[in-house]
Amino acid sequence: xxxxxxxxxxxxxxxxxxxxxxxxxxxxxxxxxxxxxxxxxxxxxxxxxxxxxxxxxxxxxxxxxxxxxxxxxxxxxxxxxxxxxxxxxxxxxxxxxxxxxxxxxxxxxxxxxxxxxxxxxxxxxxxxxxxxxxxxxxxxxxxxxxxxxxxxxxxxxxxxxxxxxxxxxxxxxxxxxxxxxxxxxxxxxxxxxxxxxxxxxxxxxxxxxxxxxxxxxxxxxxxxxxxxxxxxxxxxxxxxxxxxxxxxxxxxxxxxxxxxxxxxxxxxxxxxxxxxxxxxxxxxxxxxxxxxxxxxxxxxxxxxxxxxxxxxxxxxxxxxxxxxxxxxxxxxxxxxxxxxxxxxxxxxxxxxxxxxxxxxxxxxxxxxxxxxxxxxxxxxxxxxxxxxxxxxxxx
Length: 395
What we know:
The protein has helices at about 5-10, 15-25, 35-45, 105-120, 145-150, 210-230, 265-290, 305-320, 340-345, 380-395, and strands at about 50-55, 60-65, 75-80, 130-135, 160-175, 175-180, 180-185, 185-195, 200, 235-245, 250, 255-265, 290-300, 305, 325-330, 350-355.
């Protein structure tokens, strides 16, 4: 395989990329509070000569690379936020902010996109069009940052023709590229249902309407019935996460509260699943003589990857990594990302970059207090992004 120009250049900047990523990791910030991170990003982009916009959706940053030759506009997006959890790693760059940790790789996403901006800015004479570098706040907490950034116009003026997003993923081998055309992630919702009965003494069951009994019927019945509404081969995740009710062994409470998640392959199938679940809640409470309140909180829709952009990006990844490290997966990924909202507006490709390496100890899942990855993969990811945008602009 011929040496890739972007990879060679990124490898020479490896130490600086590592320094940037570890600085972000050491100073993590919760969504919509990424003031230090945003300031570092903006300063870096300004030094590259980009047009820089700050304060978008509170802490978002956008850098625009203007190129002398007219053409399409490409965008790349990285999320900057950390999670509200305590880090347990014993490293020199472990979080110094109590109860806050980069346990989802967003520090790596941000460092990679900063390097991608440098690579493209240094080589803009070979390009045409424009490139937008979108640094988004608050991906991991709902309501998240994608919608307010879109509402603020980050996909307009100039109008974006295609957007690319990467997520580091420890379930895939280190240094490998993974993508799925079409729907590649789930559509999800959280629910909270309050089952209302009539409280009283356990010794007088004829005088009460027992919400604990209703909760038991709903938990056991819906596990079977919800899955029975899903066609064979289609993705459905349905689970209860919390159950709260009661104060003493001899008191039937007046209500019980349950919460959980529903996840499906498409937004349309999610609408059907929500209606199915409410029908079950209604039927069980009516049968038991109770009532209910149901609260639905939609999270992220499915990420839809444009097949043409997937083909282009796979080709670009092959130029950097070698085709043997470029893979498609066939099953919808069970996680979600608000990058889906960008890709509802413009054609896009969302891909995963493997970080898993058990021998190095980099095999912990996301949102784990020991999550970490090898910084040496970041130049590779930045080069893939730069090559993908180059091929898009010149196509």
